[in-house]
């Protein structure tokens, strides 16, 4: 899972054969041509080694994502879903290919600048929320902005507004232990939105909630998408996928666009 990658790298949560014809095909097939392309994944590959044996986690992936798209990523365990999110989230280095997000080639950004890219361009939502237990809902959302040097007054105002928009206006001072699973996930959504990212990466965000809570989270995602927020959701749940604007399926590291 993406959380495991982050733990391994010690990242603080708040804080290439010619294959382009597939990207061009995706460009032709996807509707809404007027929407700006926010992300282009070009011939992206990731190979690990188990001893001397290569394991191809992702093979020449080509994806075009438009602003405001709610994109589901599905596939069996070990198919490459979390690897794709980890590469887009700059938590892993690609073996080959490019990821161009909001005009920035993420694969060419120096290592020392990657934390800034993550703060400014990418929001993360996790299955297990990853909220700081000693902080209130408001403080959890505010904290993610401190690392981006957002002024204190603006941090408070922005965090409060986000939580109120997500139906948590009466839970601002509550700590995670005082919130339901659905409420905690909405706090994590507010945290992901706090720095106004180009894309939100959600790794199994409904994996540990009941169907009612799942549906409420999906409604939030759809509302955000309608407002222009781009969201990529890794999910095993067909009920989540059917509410998305598009579905990518990954099998053995190969992506197919439905």
From TrEMBL:
Residues 1-29 are annotated as: Disordered. Residues 39-258 form the ABC transporter domain. Keywords: ATP-binding, Nucleotide-binding, Transport. CDD domains: ABC_MJ0796_LolCDE_FtsE. Gene3D superfamilies: P-loop containing nucleotide triphosphate hydrolases. The keyword Iron does not apply. One of its GO terms (cellular component) is plasma membrane. SMART domains: AAA. One of its GO terms (molecular function) is ATP binding. Pfam families: ABC_tran. The keyword Cell membrane does not apply. Coiled coil: none annotated. This is ABC transporter, ATP-binding protein. It comes from Methanosarcina barkeri MS.
């Amino acid at each position: 899972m993406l959380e495991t990658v982050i733990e391994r790298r010690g990242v603080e949560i708040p804080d290439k054969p010619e294959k382009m014809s597939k990207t061009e095909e995706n460009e032709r097939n996807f509707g809404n041509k007027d929407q700006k392309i926010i992300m282009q994944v070009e011939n992206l590959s990731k190979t690990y080694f188990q001893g001397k044996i290569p394991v191809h986690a992702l093979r020449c992936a080509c994806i075009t994502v438009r602003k405001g798209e709610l994109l589901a990523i599905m596939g069996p365990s070990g198919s490459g879903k979390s690897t794709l999110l980890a590469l887009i989230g700059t938590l892993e280095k690609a073996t080959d290919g490019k990821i161009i997000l909001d005009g920035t080639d993420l694969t060419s950004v120096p290592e020392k600048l990657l934390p800034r890219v993550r703060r400014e361009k990418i929001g993360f939502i996790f299955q297990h929320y990853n909220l700081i237990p000693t902080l209130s809902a408001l403080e959890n959302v505010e904290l993610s902005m401190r690392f981006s040097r957002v002024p204190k007054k603006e941090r408070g105002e922005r965090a409060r507004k986000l939580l109120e928009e997500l139906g948590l206006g009466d839970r601002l001072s509550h700590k995670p232990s005082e919130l339901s699973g659905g409420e905690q996930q909405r706090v994590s959504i507010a945290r992901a939105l706090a720095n106004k990212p180009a894309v939100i990466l959600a790794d199994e965000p409904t994996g540990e909630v009941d169907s009612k809570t799942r549906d409420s989270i999906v409604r939030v995602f759809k509302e955000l998408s309608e407002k222009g927020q781009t969201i990529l959701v890794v999910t095993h749940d067909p009920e989540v996928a059917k509410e998305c604007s598009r579905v990518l399926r990954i099998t053995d590291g190969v992506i197919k666009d439905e």
